[in-house]
Amino acid sequence: LRALISPGINIQEVYPGDVYVTYNQKISKKVPLMSRVEVNLRSSFQLENTPILFPDSVEIIGSSIQLDTIHQWFTAEMETPKLGLGISELSIPIEDTVSKVTVSPKEATLFIQPKRYTEQQIEIPVMVEGNPDNTYVNLQANSIKVICLVPLENFQELEEASYVWKIPYDSLDTRIPYFIPDVSYLPDYVKVIRVEPYQMSYVVSRIQS
User: Fold this and answer.
1) pLDDT tens digits, residue range 60-85?
2) Which of 194, 189, 114 is CA-nearest to residue 150?
3) φ, ψ dihedrals at 34, nearest 5°
4) Closest Cα to residue 122, out of 166, 78, 83, 155?
5) Within 10 Å of residue 114's Cβ, how many Cβ atoms?
6) What 3 state SS string does the chain have?
């Protein structure tokens, strides 16, 4: 301080006596990378699986205070042309969107695999099993109809498959006179449009012995 003051000036007091300096350490960390790409598909095409983003994480560098509040990073926002059959690889920019925070890498690849789908109807028999003695369950219908979309390549496979929906008696809540049809046993590639009936009514009868 004396070096900054002209000779002959006598320093009596300095105010404030202490100067506090805030020091933010610059650090880096990895966070998940999230896609902001809107995928457009040609008519009759669907995505069987969620598009894959590579890499699925990025490294961000900035002050520890800033990075403590960042838990994910996003790609640039963009929209694809109408995609059809085959695997599409799109280069997506990754931008520095937060002041004084840098991200690496600057680009990601989005892998998109549309498939041609067609509508299909499946008739699935329904039965209740494990009834107590002298107890009968009368169902609204003996089967359910599932209207769905399936990849064209799996149409025959699903056509030839044999499904039966078996309902354990103990799973019925007899206070409610219906249950919602379950189709969770269908293959993952099946996209259910609707189920008929959308709820199955039933009546429990007991015969006195």
Assistant:
1) 999 988 899 999 999 999 999 999 88
2) 189
3) -115, 140
4) 155
5) 23
6) CHHHCCCCCCCCCCCCCCCCCCCCCEEEEEEEEECCEEEEECCCEEECCCCEEECCEEEEEEEHHHHCCCCCEECCCEEEEEECCCCEEEEEECCCCCCCCEEECCEEEEEECEEEEEEEEEEEEEEEECCCCCEEEEECCCEEEEEEEEEHHHHHHHHHCCCCEEEEHHHCCCCCCEECCCCCCCCCCCEEEEEECCCEEEEEEECCC
Give residue 115's identity as a one-letter amino acid code.
K
Distance CA 198, CA 156 (A): 25
C-alpha neighbours within 13 Å on the C-beta side of residue 55: 13
51 preceded by a cis bond (ω within 30 of 0):
no
User: Which amino acid, 45?
Assistant: F
- Per-residue pLDDT tens digits for 7-48: 666 666 766 666 655 656 788 999 999 999 999 999 989 988
149 CA to centre of own chain: 20
Question: Is a pLDDT exceeding 70 seen at residue 3?
Answer: no
CB count in 10 Å sphere of residue 181: 19
Specify whether the CB–CB gap between 112 and 88 falls below 8 A. Answer: yes
How many angstroms separate the CA atoms of 94 and 88, rounded? 19
Q: Which tokens is 90 given?
A: 């799109």
